[in-house]
Amino acid sequence: MNLQRSGVELHEIDDLIQDAYCKFAALESVDHIDRPPAFFMQIVKNLRRDRLRRDKIVNFEEFTENGEPTVNDWEPSIEKAVSARQELGLVEAVLETLPRRCRDIFTLKRIEGLSQREIARRLEVTENIVENDVQKAVKALQNKLRATEATELKEALVEADRKQTG
User: Fold this and answer.
1) N or C: which end of the chain has fewer CB within 10 A?
2) What is the CATH T-level fold of the domain 76-165, as seen in this structure?
């Protein structure tokens, strides 16, 4: 597999190869490896896939359908900081309502960025369980955020109506 031909940037190729060497060097034994070059390239492919997956991790702001684009501001406004704290509190509250395994899997996947395989191995469950529990958590978060938005919208409409009539 030619990494550059598959669309990988040059700087990323160097990082992938370096990370693959580190993983290869960390192996306790290499006796089980029949074809070292193929094994090494598989490590590189897996690292690339993991990076692509991590890049796809959705920010909690994107759960709201009308979220503003994320801007990397070094010092967010007070309103944004308060809103982010409230949203984080809401997420934590929703996660607390989930079964422990589901909550742990979601945290490992979406916050720590582990792969399904790593999570399954760590928690001694199948990859299907990992995938299903992540989906359950995401749906619970989406439902709660939509309900919260609807409530806030209703409150804003009531307040606007009160101002017009009063």
Assistant:
1) C
2) Arc Repressor Mutant, subunit A (1.10.10)
